[in-house]
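Let us work through a complete example step by step.
Step 1: write down the sequence.
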Amino acid sequence: MKAIKKIRQLGAQWETQDPFLFCAYHLDNYPKGNETLGPDASLAGRNIGMDFHGKDGWNMYHGTTVPGFPAHPHRGFETITVVEKGLADHSDSLGAAGRFGEGDVQWMTAGKGVQHSEMFPLLNQEGENPLLLFQLWLNLPRASKMVEPHYKMLWNEDIPIVTHQDEEGHDIRVKVIAGSYQGTEALSPAPDSWAAQKENGVEIWLVTLASNATWSVPKGAAGLNRTLYFYEGHEIITEGYQIPKEHGLDLISDEEITLQNGNQTGSFLFIQGKPIGEPVAKQGPFVMNSYEEINEAIQEYRQTEFGGWPWPSHDHTHDREKGRFATHADGTEEIKNV
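Step 2: predict the structure and record it as tokens.
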């Protein structure tokens, strides 16, 4: 294999390479919602509070009435939450909040420590509430692990999309979340991110190939870690291999690779970055350089709760009538159409 280093099967948590820590993949075909923004369906037979088994094609995760992840802490890394379908309600210990989805991306730098909740409100009471969400954990280097927490919204309407065709006229669509593609630059990431320095080569793209389309992943600089995740479609053919969906390909960054898509629309997540190359100590929601620093993070969280929790419940959701919005810790508010 000239350009492929490794092929792996995908699960719910996708293995990544430095500077990324992992990618969580959520695909839930939620039913219609009820009055409290949860599923209008029986929760019998589910391990409520720890529901990850995909019963009936969806999960409650750590939620008890609304699916999602009630208040929990982070320190030492970033979350990049891409909600292609459905909605997410954000609340945090700094008093910031938001509702985003249907193509929006939240870029959150946990830095020295923040609590937040991520709930998935089921607003549609007449039909299904599908959710398709990726959450990438992007590491922070030692110099940035204790920066102030911050989050930034990349609204769907503003994220650049490059469309073109292969030689046979088949459509190719690339949504540029980070980095650039064919000269089109992404929106700026969070300011303290590893991705904020162009020389680190961080790229995040969502790629859609029409059936039978041919697409070449362009060469990058040498020494970068890059992975292509094939999560929806039938199969692709590359370098003599037939690869079914739900597989990831670790690629050599300074080699071009050409994909021939199969007879269904193919969907891919592409990520790339220069490795940070520092020791990584991980325990639950904390990512530092040593386990001594992990213990310090745990002790500080027990004492301060990273600012406490200003919301009425740990699984806080916003009013049904709220559209897409973001309220930041400094009081700045962004409001988008539903």
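Step 3: interpret the result. Residues 1-12+160-278 form a domain with the Jelly Rolls fold (CATH 2.60.120.10).
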